Structures are given as C-alpha cells and as structure tokens.
Amino acid sequence: MSDVVNVGILGRGTVGGAFRRLLNERADMVEEVSGRRPRVSGVLSRKRGDFDRILARSEIVVELMGGVDPALEYVMQALEAGRHVVTANKQLLAQHGPDLVNAARRGGAQLRFEAAVAGAIPVIRVVQESLGAIPIEKVFGIVNGTTNYILTEMRRSGLSYGEALAQAQELGYAEADPSEDVNGADAAAKMTILARLAFGVPVKLDDVPFEGIERIRPDDLAYAKELGLSLKLLGVAERVGDDAISVRVFPCFLYPGHPLAPIEGAFNAVMVEAPTITEITMSGPGAGGSETASAVLGDVVSVISGGSPLFEENARLRVARDVEMAFYLHLEVEDRPGVLAQVAETLGQNEVSVRSVVQRGRGDDATLIMVMHPVSEKRFAAALKKIGRLRFLRSPPRSIRVIEEEFG
Ligand SMILES: NC(=O)c1ccc[n+]([C@@H]2O[C@H](COP(=O)([O-])OP(=O)(O)OC[C@H]3O[C@@H](n4cnc5c(N)ncnc54)[C@H](OP(=O)(O)O)[C@@H]3O)[C@@H](O)[C@H]2O)c1
Q: 14 CA to middle of ligand 1, Å?
C-alpha cells in the first residue's frame, strides 16, 4: 500500500472548504497515527472539477455536496468501484441508507457518516461501535440546532416564533429557507439514521412521523417558564414492548433535572439508554463548517486506519404505529359554566385521564391548561378532534407532549 492516501472531495462549500483546510493542516498528524499521508486528489463543485477523474484518482471519496441528486449517483458509483466514502449527507442516508450499505458491501468499501447526525458530536460512533454490542433501549435528543435556538430565544426573550426565526436567520443559525429545520423533517432524517443503527431495523423516512415548532406560541413558553419546564424539539427512537420500535419527532416539555433541559441555543444533545449503561448524554455543536469538518476528518482517519463498522439487521423488530405519551392541552374557551365538565367528559370517553387543570383569565381571556396522564397517542388525537368541535372554543386546541421521566 502506498504511503499516500488520495482523498477526492465532492463539494467546496461551508463544510467542503473547511474540510479541505483541516485535512491540509492535520496531514502530519494523520500520517503519524495511521502511517499514511492524506493528499487531496481533486475537488468538485458545480463550476469546477470532473467527477470521473476524481473517482479514478481517489482511494477515499468525501461527499460534501448535499442533496440526493447527483450525490446518490456519485456515492453509489464510488462504493461499487471499491472507493471508501465519507459523507455528511443526512438526506442521502435517510432515503437510501440500505442501498448504500449494500453497495459498500458489494464494492468491499467502507461507508462512514459521523457528520450526518449532530455535527461534531460522535453519536454515530458511540451507537454503532462503542455500544454496538449491547441492546439499546432508547436513543433520543435535540438533533436540530436551528429549532433549539428559536425555542431558547422565545423562552428567554419572549419573542414570537417569527421574530426568533428572523433572529436565527440574521445570525446564520437558520437558512434562508428554514422549512426542513422548523417542520421537523431534518430531525426525522437524522432519527431514521440513528434508529437503523441502534436497533438494526431498516426504518424508512416514511416510518417517522414528525411535527415541527411552527405552531408554538409565546404563551406555551410562558407556561413552561412559570412551571420551570423546558420546551424542546425532540427526536425519539425507542423499543416498544418486545417486538417493536417507535421513531418520532415532536416538540415537548421536559421537567427540570432532565439532562436535555439545560441544552440551549444552537447546540445538539443526544442521550442513549440501555440497561447496562443506564444512560449517556453527549452534547455539543450540531453544525458549523469547522465543527462538521472535524467529524468528517475523524471518519477519514478511521477509514485509513481500517476496521469497518457493523451494519447489523434485526428484522424481528417492527415499527410501532402508536405509543403512550403525556400531553399538555391549551384551550381558549368561553367563560361559562359547564365548559370544564364537557371537556373532561370528552377526554374520559376516549380514556384520557387528566393529571392537572388550571383555569387562567376571565371572560374573553379564559384559558384552560390541562396536563394528561400518559395515554395512547391515537386515543388522545381522537379526543382532541372531538374537543376541536366543541362550540365554546375560541380557537383550535393546542397540545404539546410532555416527557415525565425523572433523572435523579
Ligand atoms: N453546514 C453545516 O453546518 C452542516 C452540518 C452538518 C452536515 N452538513 C451537511 O454537509 C453537506 C454540505 O453542506 P454545506 O453547508 O457545506 O453546503 P454548501 O455550502 O451549499 O456547499 C455545497 C457544495 O457542493 C457543491 N455542489 C452542489 N451541488 C453540486 C453538483 N450538482 N455538482 C457539483 N458540485 C455541487 C457546491 O458547488 P458550488 O460551490 O459550485 O455551488 C458547493 O461547493 C450537506 O449534506 C449538509 O447537510 C452541513
């Protein structure tokens, strides 16, 4: 084997540019630890470079273009030709992960993607390798920095959703088109990847229902602040019973003391729970050019050093369609007798039981804030639909999930 490793880079944008600089800066160190010196064999952008020439010259292809087309074609071609691939592209992996793993097997190549989930936090390595031999119960966390920044600012400064989003865009924490971040789709792609690794189940992006933060209102955060709760957009992948898993993305309240509660601003944090380890929490920057590039370089060093990560499949687990959660319910109602009784009756008919209820305001400001005991999400959704039709409501009902798990 030559002492030089040729690395072709697809993309010269935020991450591609930072990776190229970092690779040059750290080439001596990589040579020291691996015995082989990385050298950039070509860089592709829309305007410059030729993919076929880069492929022919490279032992490792680093894909930092983003999107599915043409990234999928390039990565498949590289893997089938026996080139190792490192990518930060969550959409590519979430939509085509199993095909890529098969292509890597056919080509005898490695596929690594640490930077695709939670930027600089080594969560893929921990789930896939460090904890690869134990049965994981649950992987969950804050995997989108844009939404965490917006929720943090709404709580801290009382900003509306629109104001906090505009601030995030000004500071570069949100893109010009933030839809995939704020509607939960970005987090769903990341959770698809994590769930596949944690449970060995071929989860598809369509298996992951997601909700975003667009409908969160300042009074939801005011309520949270008053009770010392935090509001986070969470991705959750967990075992349900003996034969299923559930993977979802939703905004939710956390009690104080929860390890994810203090994670503020554009940071990410991921927790892994398993009987043998209790729980592990990892937090850090989830995006940024140099942060993401450092995870990409770590993958490149792993590829050079050898040792392929495991992609185990466990087809015995199915994806559950319903799970139990606690809910907060916010109802703006007419202030008249019998309102609370009718809401309670509708909830009761759907076997939803109320843990606490508070009435705020009078007359045109009357609001009922209720917290439910854990209940089947489907049953709660059915109750909510019926409540939405009650004539004394002044606006559509709003609900947010609540995680009651306590950490001591
Ligand atoms: N930015 C982050 O903080 C971050 C964090 C985690 C993961 N990621 C992931 O990293 C990847 C790259 O993100 P980025 O922020 O660096 O993107 P970016 O700044 O938009 O850069 C994309 C680069 O790819 C090139 N490119 C795009 N389409 C191409 C095509 N069809 N043919 C040739 N070149 C093409 C672009 O060429 P031109 O220069 O000619 O336009 C550009 O150089 C994405 O998968 C993203 O999800 C990014």
A: 7
